[in-house]
Specification:
Elements lengths: L35 H22 L8 H14 L3 E2 L11 E5 L2 E3 L13 E10 L2 E10 L5 H19 L7 H14 L3 E2 L5 E3 L6 E5 L16 E4 L2 E3 L5 E3 L6 E3 L5 E3 L2 E6 L2 E4 L4
Antiparallel strand pairs: 1-4, 2-4, 3-12, 4-5, 6-10, 7-8, 7-9, 9-14, 10-13, 11-12, 14-15
Bound molecules: magnesium ion.
C-alpha cells in the first residue's frame, strides 16, 4: 500500500507540486536505519506476506469474488500469528487491496467476480512482532492479452531494476531512475501521484520513493535502510483519479495498470528482498 504522509491529503502520498521532476524538495528525510534484529523481524513478517501472495495464486481464476481472496488472505495472516496492516488503516475496510484492470491501487475487495482476461493487482501488508512488511503482485486471470502480459512483465522488471539499485553508495534517485527507465523503455507510463516508501515499525516511514526522477540525487543509501519499492505502471497515460469511495485509484483513460512491490533492505553486500517465501 502506498505511503500516506501527514503532508498529503487522501489515501496515499502525493508528490509535492514543487518536486515535479521526482527530486525531493525541502529538508533531507529522516530515514530510520534498522538493526540486524529489526531486519530479521521484518523478514519474518515478509515471509507471511509472500506466503499470502503465493497462496492466492491458485485462487485467482474466473468467477472468484475479490472478497473471497480477502478472506483467504486474512485467515492465512492470522494463522501465522500476524496482523493485516491494511485493515482499519485510515479506515481501509479490508485486509488486502484488490485492483482489477484499470484500477491502479487500493481497490477494495467485494462482490465483484474475476473474469477471464482480467489482470488483478493484490497488495498485502503484515505486522508481526511490531514490524511491517508490504508487497504486491499483479496476476493474470486465465488467458490475458499480449499487452496485459507485457505490462506485467515490464512492471515486474522495473521493480527488479529498482531493487538492484538499492546498494550502499547509490542515492535514492538512482533507485527511482532505474525504475523509470525500464518502464518508459517498455513504452509504458509511470504513475506519479503515488510512490513507494520507507517501512519498519511504521508501514509508512520516510523517505517517499518516487518511481521516476533524475539519478544521482537524494539521500545516500546506507546499510539498515528498508524500503517498500512499488512501481505502479499504466498502459496508456500516467494520469489517475481517486473514486468517490476515497480509495479506489483508476487510470483516467480507462486503460490497464499494473503494480508490483517488495520490501527491501539495503545491506553491505547489496539489496536483500525481505518479502520472500
Ligand atoms: Mg507499500
Amino acid at each position: 500500500m502506498r505511503g500516506a504522509g501527514r503532508r498529503f491529503k487522501g489515501s496515499g502520498f502525493r508528490i509535492s507540486p514543487l518536486s515535479g521532476d521526482g527530486s525531493q524538495a525541502g529538508p533531507e528525510p529522516m530515514i530510520i536505519r534498522k538493526s540486524a534484529e529489526e531486519i530479521d523481524k521484518m523478514r519474518r513478517a515478509g515471509r507471511i506476506v509472500a506466503g499470502v501472495l503465493d497462496m492466492l495464486e491458485e485462487h485467482v481464476r474466473p468467477g472468484v469474488r475479490t472478497e473471497s481472496l480477502n478472506r483467504l488472505a486474512d485467515d492465512f495472516i492470522r494463522r501465522k500469528g500476524g496482523i493485516p496492516s491494511f485493515l482499519g488503516y485510515r479506515g481501509f475496510p479490508a485486509s488486502i487491496c484488490t485492483s482489477i484492470n484499470d484500477v491502479v491501487v487500493h481497490g477494495i475487495p467485494g462482490k465483484e467476480r474475476l473474469k477471464e482476461g482480467d489482470i488483478i493487482g493484490i497488495d498485502v501488508g503484515v505486522i508481526l512482532d511490531g514490524y511491517h512488511a508490504d508487497a504486491a503482485r499483479t496476476y493474470p486471470v486465465g488467458e490475458v492479452s499480449d499487452t496485459a502480459q507485457r505490462l506485467m512483465e515490464v512492471t515486474r522488471a522495473s521493480l527488479d531494476a529498482g531493487i538492484a539499485a538499492c546498494r550502499p553508495g547509490n542515492r535514492l534517485g538512482d533507485v527511482s531512475n532505474s525504475i523509470q527507465r525500464v518502464v518508459e523503455g517498455g513504452g509504458f507510463s509511470v504513475v506519479v501521484q503515488f510512490v513507494g516508501h520507507g517501512i519498519g515499525k511504521e508501514m509508512h516511514e520516510e523517505p517517499q520513493i518516487p518511481n521516476f526522477g533524475p539519478p544521482g540525487r537524494g539521500p545516500l543509501l546506507q546499510p539498515g535502510m528498508t524500503f517498500a519499492l512499488e512501481p505502479m505502471v499504466n498502459e496508456g497515460a500516467w494520469e489517475v483519479r481517486v473514486e468517490e469511495d476515497g480509495w479506489t485509484v483508476r487510470t483516467v483513460d480507462g486503460k490497464l495498470s499494473a503494480h508490483f512491490e517488495h520490501t527491501v533492505a539495503v545491506t553491505e553486500g547489496g539489496p536483500e528482498i525481505l518479502t520472500l517465501p
